[in-house]
Every structure is written in structure tokens, then in C-alpha cells.
Design goal:
51% of the residues lie in helices and 5% in strands. It is built from seven helices and two strands; from the N terminus they run ααβααβααα. It is globular.
Length: 148
Amino acid sequence: MVKLLGATPMALPYKEVQDALQQKKVDCAENNMPAYESTGHYKVARYAYLTNHVASPEVLVVSTKLWGQLSQDDQALFLKAGQKSALLMRELWNKRVASARATVVKDGAQIVAVSDFAPFVRKMGPRYSRFMVDPAVRGEVFNIIGNQ
């Protein structure tokens, strides 16, 4: 993905990113807003470009063995609790993102939100092409792109 966008990816231990930014060994780093704030990267990389290209899901899992031992009522309760926890997690995450954003902006970082995703979509064409073969997956790709 990084290469398709015209950049050169560089493998770097996370704990070394701050120094690499300060020493201008790297031009930018990829992360979410809470990490940008909590690591202090915003103090040396004063611009954040919001692309919304990643939304990490939180996953609640249970083994097949345990699931098979649960009654149908317990399975239904488990599913309902999982759905509620997913909504709560998203709500808490959104609050954390807003708090981090407020902190970095207050300290002088500048946030630039992408308003036109078309150039990104065009550049990512080679990446998307492998997912276009399966109609079900293709629909999900279009759904994701359409929600930007």
C-alpha cells in the first residue's frame, strides 16, 4: 500500500520512531490518533493527515469446543453481549480519538482531513484488483470505499 501511494516503506521498531522523526531519518509514520498523541509523535511530526484507511476491528472470540458446550440460550446471551460490547468499544474508541485529537491540536499539531478519496482509490487499484475476483468480497470492497 505504501509503495502504491508513492512512498518507500521502512521497517523500524516502534520504540525508535520518535527518534527517527526527530533526526529526520523518516519523513512520516503511520498510526492512529491515540497513538500519535500517547507516543508524543505529534511533538516532532506536527502534521497529521487523516485518511481513514484503517479501521481496526475488535474481535471477541470463543473456542468451538466451548461454544458447543453452551446451551442455545447461553449462546444467544453470548452473542447479544458481544454485540453490545462491540458498540461500547466503538463508543469508547471514538471518545479516545476525540480526546487525543483535542490534545494534539491544543499543542499546535495540525490535522488535515482528506476530503477527496478518489486519488487514493485510483492509486490503490492494483491492490484492490485481487479482491475483485470474488463477487462477495468485491461488494465489501465497494462498501468500504463508498463509506469514505
